[in-house]
Design brief:
The complex is a heterodimer of chains A (about 110) and B (about 200). Helices cover about 55% and strands about 10% of the residues of chain A. Chain A is built from 5 helices and 2 strands. Chain A starts with 9 loop residues before the first helix and ends with a helix. The chains are: A mainly alpha (about 110), B mainly alpha (about 200). At the A-B interface, helix 3 of A face helix 2 and helix 3 of B.
């Protein structure tokens, strides 16, 4: 039986998009910077770490630790990549939002 | 010399994060950003910045573990104001943040302890006053349940009355807070009364 794509919350959707943008450089620091720059919204670090952990538990993200350095006190970075399940979840959420906003372009795209 | 993050904050956050991999990732990320903040705004601001984020992360992660399904708002600990802000506004920010996260809990614990002491005193006072009556009733064949009912009945009525008024005050206060959060700044009767008294 094929598992259905999990539902994504608004913040989870944002985090997955940022990870997708950053490709192989996606760890918490640039992910947070990208969300703040592109959405203009302040992101609490605790919320970001919790969202990343939850997305990994849902099977939408995979993580690997690498690049320990002196600048990080010898601690490695935790890099994230979007899994096939994460992509499916992104597509589902994106399609749902697009369907929901169809017909509202005149209002939504007003500057 | 590269400034080091406050050791106590680093240790505390490390102790509060049970997962070793996440601990490394979180502490490493903060350590990586610390010198950049210190260079941009100075070491004192960077230390404040580190404390704010360490406490924020610890509170958020602990809250998510305790109540995983609950929707959480943004953290009580936000980015400290820019260092060009006056010392007074920096201090106010820290006090407000600490109050939001810790103050309410401390008040709840102290109130609980005071209530327990109050209930104990009330019960011992009422029992002491009726000790002779209880002795007579026991001699006449009253059971243990009868004596307990006699001792607690009056206290229970007083506690019940206090509970009712506290509960309605709480509801009124929470409704007022909810209204304020949704942008309606009208005060509840209790808030208006308290403001008027403190004015």
């Amino acid at each position: 039986m094929r598992a259905t794509a999990p539902h994504l919350g608004e913040f989870e959707y944002t985090v997955l998009l940022a990870v997708l943008h950053l490709k192989d450089q996606a760890y918490a620091v640039p992910v947070r910077a990208m969300i703040e720059t592109r959405t203009g919204r302040a992101v609490a670090r605790g919320a970001l770490y919790t969202a990343l952990e939850r997305l990994e538990a849902k099977g939408c993200l995979r993580s690997a630790q690498r690049d320990p350095s002196d600048a990080r006190g010898g601690r490695p970075r935790r890099y994230f990549t979007v899994t096939a399940r994460g992509l499916a979840a992104l597509r589902t959420t994106h399609a749902a939002l697009r369907r929901l906003s169809t017909g509202l372009e005149a209002i939504l795209e007003q500057s | 010399v590269t400034p080091a993050p406050p050791r106590l904050a680093e240790r505390g956050l490390g102790l509060l994060e049970p997962d070793a991999d996440w601990r490394d990732a979180i502490l490493g990320d903060l350590r990586e950003e610390f010198p950049i903040i210190a260079e941009r705004h100075g070491a004192p601001y960077a230390r404040r910045w580190y404390w704010a984020h360490a406490l924020g992360i610890a509170l958020h992660r602990a809250g998510s573990r305790l109540t995983p399904g609950r929707r959480r708002h943004a953290l009580p600990f936000t980015e400290p104001p820019e260092p060009r802000a006056s010392r007074v506004s920096l201090l106010l920010h820290d006090v407000r943040a600490a109050w939001r996260s810790v103050g309410h809990g401390v008040i709840a614990i102290v109130s609980g302890l005071l209530s327990a002491v109050g209930i104990y005193s009330l019960l011992s006072f009422l029992t002491g006053r009726r000790a002779r009556e209880m002795g007579v009733r026991m001699a006449l064949g009253a059971t243990r349940g009868d004596v307990v009912r006699l001792a607690c009945g009056q206290a229970a009525r007083l506690i019940g009355a206090a509970w009712r008024s506290a509960w309605s005050a709480r509801i009124s206060w929470v409704e007022g807070s909810k209204r304020r959060c949704s942008g309606d700044h009208r005060q509840s009767r209790w808030q208006a009364a308290l403001r008027w008294r403190s004015a």
